[in-house]
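Run log, item B.
One chain of 415 residues. Sequence copied directly from the ordering sheet:
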Amino acid sequence: MQMMIDVLAQILGTLWAHKLRSFLTMFGIAWGVGSLLLLVGLGEGFRTGNKRSLSELGENIMFLFPGHAPAVAGSMNSAREYRLTYKDYIDIRNESPHIRAITPVINTSDVHAVSEFATASGQLTGAEPQYNGIRFLPLRQGRWLNDLDEAQKRDVVVLGDEMTHNLFPGRPAVGSFILLNDHRFEVIGTLKRVGRGDENSTNTRAYIPFQVMRSDFPLKGEESYDAISFLNYQPRTADEHALAEDEARRVIARNHHFDYRDEDAFEGWDTVKQAQMMGTIFDAMNEFLGTVGLVTLALGAIGVINIMLIAVTERTREIGLRKALGATNRSIMLQFFAEGVLLTLVSGLVGMALAGGLMALLGSYNGPAGFDPPRLVAKTAVLAIGSLTLAGVAAGLYPARKVARLEPVEALRQE
């Protein structure tokens, strides 16, 4: 124990005797570790933010919107607009074995909501009960729409979080009644807040049975009672998303009389495909950021190695004197080993602490949609500190071992 205390005292004395060199060495190590952790943390923030944004829509969600069908194949100049219909929904549901769930949706923003306490505006959505199994709609109170609501065309509504707070500030909403464009609806449920800030429109929506929406709030400018805003559906599994999309497109093309192979005729959004594409992009981004961080780390390691080599060379006479006084090769090697470990380990921990502190400060900042604050990746921290510690120890031990083998007289002769 006393020997370790003596070694530590010698190390601290040596570092203090060369304050500027020690500071620059530690700064280089801390900078390399901190830069690597921050760059990798930023990449991880992008990845988790994008994943969170998609999960707030739902799992494996796919959209199909109205589009333009060319009268002449491949020529969009001759395109005619077509609307999706309730018949399209029924046909896709009955003829598409790779689609697990599907619902028609009618959306409108031309609705004024009034409660006995306040008024509010937002989006009104009509959908069938399976909608909350497709989309991410976590209930806070009450219940979701059910099959009886749909079959009996009940005037019931489920409110998003912001809509609830606007219409019922500090008051219970479930069981109360509201007016939607002078139509009286009973509030049967409220939703939890989805997303951060105002980035998710789910919070400003009210949800009613599809058949009620179809009767009382049909799409404007449409002669057909059958028209819907879009279709939401899910494949049986994520791997079958392309098959599900192909089945839905075939039905739409047949019903609206155009070639299903014409990509320009369809408007849709496949979150499964987007997630795969974003995963590839973020993998490449992580590799790039990691490479930049590793280069920074390597530069720090080179600085450590250089300074340790110089330090050992300068202390050749000291090593010779200690050997003349009876120091063993083992004790000399132990000192340089401990010095390398202490210098690099402490510097690496300082760099990790600084990077972690900066990430914590960024954690209070609500970035744009699809971006989470950077996160400290423990595996990267261990790798960075471990590699620099190994470099520092190796750089100190190699020349120290050569010098320790010299005879004391030869070591004392060195200038």
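Observations after the first pass:
- The two ends are 34 Å apart (CA to CA).
- The longest strand covers residues 99-108.
Flagged for discussion on Thursday.
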